[in-house]
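User: My collaborator sent over this chain with a note saying "see what the structure looks like." That's all I know about it. Can you take a look?
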Amino acid sequence: MTTHRIRVGIDVGGTFTDAVAVDATSLRLLGQVKVPTSHHHEDGVAHGIVEALDRLLQQVGRAPADVAFLAHGTTQATNALLEGDVAMVGLIGIGTGPGAFFTRRLAALGRLELAPGKRLPLGYAHVADPDDTAAVHAAVEELKAAGVQVLVATEPFAVDRPEGERSVLATARAAGLPMTAAHEITSLYGLHKRTRTAVVNAAILPRMLATADLVDASITKAGVTAPLMVMRCDGGVMGLDEMRRRPLLTVLSGPAAGVAGALMQERISEGVFLETGGTSTDISVVRRGKVAVRHATMLGKTSYLNALDVRTVGVGGGSMVRVDQGRVTAVGPRSAHIAGLPYACFADLDDLRDATLATVRPMADDPADYAVLDAAGGRYAITMTCAANALGRVPEGDFAHCDPEVAKAAIVPLAAALGVDLPTAAGRILDAGVAQVRAVVDALVRDYRLDTDTAVLVGGGGGAASVTPHLAALTGMEGQIARHSEVISPIGVALALVREQIERIIPGATEEQILSVRAEAERAVVAQGAMADGVEVEVTVDPQTSTVRAVATGATELRTQDRSHSADDAERLAAAAASLKTDPAQVRVLAGTPAHTVYGTEVRRRLGTARRPVRVVDADGVVRLHASDARVTATTVGAAPELLAHLVREGTSYGDGGVRAPALRLLLGFRIADLSGVLDPEPLLALARSEMRDHAADEPVVAVLEVRS
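Assistant: Without extra context I'll predict from the sequence alone. Here is the result:
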């Protein structure tokens, strides 16, 4: 019997460090452990990571050599910024004349507030000529005397002419301090925002370097030969060397791990992911098989950090009920954990004997309207989890499941005070809590134009069952709780792909320049260990901002999925029909590749026109692509360039908004190449040719085109 190698994901939280082992072939969860996060150990969080790995390997009966992939996510960078526990940054501004005026103004970055009463510690020095070694040495000595621990060099227009920043750092290297150039952190224009992003990155650099070195040494000592990867804030992972250069990419990576787990394990292609803990719910979007990212706001300012678009609501499984004048007025933001109280539904039935309803202030400044039970066993909080269990919304075996009779007993005193029956009281609790979540979900559906007929709500986290099922019932959207929801974050870390994003501002970008950005992104993920054969690159060209963006993803090894449970033709047809909201008899196969089948139907409109919605289903029966009205054409790699040129010309529209080529996706081999981010026909066709260049001429390729209105 062959023993498959394992992928290990470790999620370092504020209180606990969770680790999971996943079969590298079938992606089946093999084991999970939880240890206290070792903040106060001399080796810091590295000690907890190694302890978790040790216990995990013992549990699943594997050796360190069996680890094919090891990655960890950490809140360390986020916490450092939130708590103001950062290094003092020495900023060296470069320039003469008008340039000097703008760089000198950057000294004001020292006013950025990290935490109440704590500002970003910053020293500023200026050099007119970056090649004047004496002036650079003097600036560095001035900053060292002020106590700086890390250096940043910045100059106007360094994105296009980086020689000045590089020259300063080359001279400053003798000081022995960690250092970075602003253009290395982001290549987007905007001196102030670029420098602010680089300075915040530098502020956490020394601490993250120390942790990276400790973790790396500890993992190597433990006998693991797989390269250590670190979770990014955009849902991918990066190599340790890249983390040492840009630790800022780990900020906000906690929520990203959860949605990465939902994306890879649940294989959702369109929907909303809700990760519910005890106190809050992080809400994010998966659209067309990809997590939604945007430039993050840090320290109250927008940055050039591409992070998961996550929106947090102060409602979780432990959120307490608030009552006033015989009605439920709200749920949260305080949770049973903050109040120091146990959940009533997790008590013994005898503990809730003679329970009476009372109200308390969880914290000194809180209103005294939080409902609690005073009973034979002590004082208990009435929570969202209590209400969900009382209504039977928490499936048996779920992390938050309890004895339904105990949950009902927890709600009875509140129902009596409200003058309603038990189901109504429990429903009002969930209504009040979920209303806050629904407002955010509705906004995300609008912002990303999700199709509510096909989008699914996926719940993760230990408190998933207290929010997602009720929200699904209220909205009419399909809802599901992720498998192993309580460890969805470390699963996401274990399954995440290597990711890199390259952005350039290139006015009037040529085909050659767009392909160059694409190639740079592809090289970056391969350099971090991704297998070249499996790299996918999505390119977007924004004509309004002249931004060319390439996002590359790839696996660190070719994972041959266990196909013993692949869907048959009938199951794939049923999945497509369900997504299309029509009878299977009305659905037909339009095209296919070895990995995907394209299904379509026809919806008649008024005036005799028709809409042709399309679904692309993979071998597992998962809908991977939705198109509301598309043209599908099957061809071969050899014939595709000429055919695509014709189809793109035919589908391109011209108007006041400029040229708009059709949204094009190619089904090729085992991949779906998404080229929909390019509006100009010629670069679009060049990218299509690039995607097909390494494939045989007789290999099948399917084009899915959507004409833009």
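A starting point for your reply to your collaborator: The first helix runs from residue 45 to 60.
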